[in-house]
Design goal:
434 residues, Pyrimidine Nucleoside Phosphorylase, Chain A, domain 2, Transferase, Pyrimidine Nucleoside Phosphorylase, Chain A, domain 3, Aldehyde Oxidoreductase, domain 3, binds uracil, binds calcium ion, alpha/beta, globular, transferase
Length: 434
């Protein structure tokens, strides 16, 4: 008897039919299936898994549970970019204006940060006057006019995913590759993209702890994209250490401006080049990865990416007069810690630094928490760099009244300096899945 038979089929390891999956999602979204039944079904999926075809049907059912954004009035291949969530990850702020400057339209909906990872929407809101919430017609018009707009999720995107995610969170069923893959891809498909480039992260600071699991998740999402006729590619990246050097919202905007001005860090620019090249490839503007990477380098060197960033900030009501002249970050207190040893940076515990920045007010523990855009941590070194005693290691930006010396001491304990050059530094990018 419906829906018990659908739960039993998955419990017994059967492959569900397209009809079963769509009916289950439609009925649950409409309130015709109880939470305890959906929870049992999720646990069966968690334990038994799903084929690529089942996962694609689940994705499509969740995508169609609410609004589907219609980007067809924008000419060209609309390419979306998504990261599974990182620390010091400003890639979107850098790569979106770069590929837009090359003629790939970017009509992107970005999330807010939760927990120790940041969200692009919060970063942009650090810019005075910036409006992250635009009516849909204005959003579309801006992309048609200048090739780039970034807003928070508008309308009712994938409500089935919202309901199921809350249930997963409460029932120990979050860490399932088909459930994560369908959750992410349903929102991308409902957001109207023609093609998708994913940054799938692994490591201490990521959802996926191992490279192997990140690869499986990426493979599943790329397969869903193909089956849903949305060309999808995934870059597998390490989150063993922060990607860039800035943790905190206004600091990350400053880092993006630096990167667009040709002063980006090694690890960050490696990811920008790889993601940018894939976006140019699927967007039909580059013929090969090498050509795409060269185009990204040229757009940075010519200043065209930075010009597009300024144009975009102004279009959404933000102040752009500071760009290229001074830093955006103005915190009440600053404290710079210097290194007491000589050697090499062998570890930077990204997750711990993200948690410290969050506790200072850079992120939210709960959805409704306010954010302080000016607080955070700016590192002066990357993983593998050499350092000498007396060189600055990081600057802490704090609220009035914060115990800076105490926080700095805690941060310092998460940056490991050893006298020996490390014999292996995990490469940032391990693979590109197509
Ligand atoms: N991000 C999502 O959007 N969904 C998941 O299930 C996990 C990460
Ligand atoms: Ca680690």
């Amino acid at each position: 008897m419906w829906p018990i038979d659908c739960i039993e089929h998955k419990r017994d390891g059967k492959v569900l039919t397209k009809e079963e999956i769509h009916r289950f999602i439609d009925d649950y979204t409409a309130g015709r299936i109880a939470d305890y039944q959906a929870a049992a079904w999720l646990m069966a999926v968690y334990l038994r898994g799903m084929t690529a075809e089942e996962t694609t049907e689940l994705t499509m059912a969740m995508a169609r549970s609410g609004d589907i954004v219609d980007l067809s009035s924008i000419p060209g291949v609309k390419v979306d970019k998504h990261s599974t969530g990182g620390i010091a990850d400003t890639t979107t702020l850098i790569v979106a204006p770069l590929v837009a400057a090359a003629g790939v339209p970017v009509a992107k909906m970005s999330g807010r940060g939760l927990g120790f990872t940041g969200g692009t929407a919060d970063k942009l809101e650090a810019i005075p006057g910036f409006r992250i919430e635009l009516p849909e017609d204005q959003f579309l018009q801006q992309v048609r006019r200048m090739g780039l707009a970034l807003i928070t999720q508008s309308g009712d995107i994938a409500p089935a995913d919202k309901l199921l995610y809350a249930l997963r969170d409460a029932t120990g069923t979050v860490e399932s590759i088909p459930l994560i893959a369908s959750s992410i891809m349903s929102k991308k498909i409902a957001s109207g993209a023609d093609a998708i480039v994913l940054d799938v992260k692994y490591g201490d600071g990521a959802f996926m702890k191992t490279k192997e699991d990140a690869r499986k998740l990426a493979r599943m999402m790329v397969d869903i994209g193909r089956l849903a006729h949305k060309p999808t590619r995934a870059v597998i990246t390490s989150m063993e250490a922060p990607l860039g050097t800035a943790i905190g919202n206004s600091l990350e905007v400053d880092e993006a401006v630096d990167a667009l001005s040709g002063r980006g860090g090694r690890r960050l620019m490696e990811v920008v080049r790889a993601i940018g090249a894939q976006m140019l490839l699927v967007g039909g503007k580059a013929g090969s990865e090498a050509e795409g990477e060269q185009m990204i380098d040229d757009l940075v060197a010519s200043g065209k990416g930075l010009a597009k960033f300024k144009e975009f900030v102004k279009a959404q009501g933000g102040s752009a007069s500071w760009i290229g002249k001074r830093l955006l970050t103005k915190a009440p207190q600053m404290f710079t810690a210097v290194c007491t040893d000589e050697g090499y940076i062998t570890e930077i515990h990204g997750r711990a630094l993200g948690e410290i920045a969050m506790a200072m007010g850079a992120g939210r523990a709960r959805k409704e928490d306010p954010i302080d855009p000016m607080v955070g941590i700016r590192l002066f070194k990357e993983l593998g760099d050499s350092i000498t005693a007396g060189e600055p290691l990081f600057t802490l930006y704090g609220k009035a009244g914060a115990d800076m010396a105490c926080i700095a001491q805690e941060i310092a304990s998460h940056i490991i300096v050893q006298s020996q050059r490390p014999d292996h530094i995990e490469p940032v990018i391990s693979e590109i899945i197509t």
